[in-house]
Amino acid sequence: MTALQQVDRLDIQVLVDNVTDSLSSTPAFVTREWVTLRRQGMRITAGGSLCCANHGLALVITAHGPAGARTLLFDGGPVDYAVERNGVRLGIDFGAIGAVMLSHGHWDHAGGIPRALGMIGQANGGHAVPLFLHPGMFRPRGALQPDGGVLPMDPIPSPADWALLGAEPVVTDSARTCLDDMFFISGEIPRITPYEKGLAGQVCRPDDGAPWRPDPLLMDERFLAVHVRGKGMVVFSACSHAGIVNVMHHVRATFPDVHLHAVMGGFHLSGPTEAIIPETVRDLGTFGLDLMIPAHCTGWRALNALERAYGEKVVVPSAVGKRFTL
Predict the structure, then answer these.
(1) Residue 325 region, left (φ>0) first, then alpha (ψ -120 to 50), else beta?
(2) Beta carbons of 61 and 95 less than 8 angstroms apart
(3) Which residues of the chain fall below pLDDT 50?
């Protein structure tokens, strides 16, 4: 694997997130949704002018390096209309997106990627872009129900189907860099903490005719990282089914000599995993992070616990339409 190159600046546009919040004050490195909408031409405040929140995550991440800017779409949220509605209102330059990554095989991160690929192709003259996928994300999945049944999840398209949608599928479980080596896509995340046990109740089967079997660990989940010059590593973990502490341990092991500046994404500390909020909050403090940017599935209890432990200068919540400059 080629060495990860440092970048001079990182711009992160939140395209899809669970919450909307354009009124709360923010630090200087965060631009609120309504500010961006005004810059993009909003002349009247109305519901039709605003972005929509939706259960999922999509980040448009632009790294500014020696060879210029390179942009990657990290996940696509749950559904086509959220990508199109928010992307148009925020003025996303879909033609500048040079690669796409699907962090793991769940519908709330994959559902909007087909429309994103269509908008990318429309803007760049029909050129396919790499789509980074893990080979374990294509199995049928579902969630066990209280009555013992299984509620299936929307399946992830096959590599062949992704190619028909305008992608160049890159299917691998190994770590690699992309876009002039400015983005690092991890391999599988080792599970080392005693309390981060994955997604309870998830099941899968090797094919449509096979019986369901337990699948809590989601080994197809991976993180994205960028090294910002003078600041350190910025880590993106879309859902953290591996456990956000396990994610950070793997980042530290992979880049032992680089300061860990920020982590952003869903920390998955809502629902049954609310039980591990105390251990997670405690152990996140061992990585020396300057910023924690909770999003998506983190949950309000974990967000409050993190802010109480580390303060507003460290814990800066995400929301749809926000733009972070690091």
Answers:
(1) beta
(2) no
(3) none
| Region at 254 (left for phi over 0; alpha for psi -120 to 50; beta for the rest) | alpha
- Quick count: other Cβ atoms within 10 Å of Cβ 309? 15
Amino acid at the residue 7: V
> Which amino acid is present at 126?
G
Average of per-residue pLDDT values in the chain: 96
Helices 277-284 & 300-310 angle (0-180, nearest 10):
40
The helix/strand/coil state of 60 is strand
For 244, other C-beta atoms within 10 Å of its C-beta total: 28
At 305-318, the pLDDT tens digits run 999 999 999 999 99
Predicted confidence (pLDDT) per residue in 260-295, tens digit: 999 999 999 999 999 999 999 999 999 999 999 999
CB-based contact 99:179 (threshold 8 Å): yes
Q: Answer whether 294's CB lies under 8 Å from 277's CB.
A: no
pLDDT value at position 234? 98
> Which residues lie below 8 Å from residue 125, measured CB to CB, with a gap of 6+?
none
Residue 266 three-state SS: strand
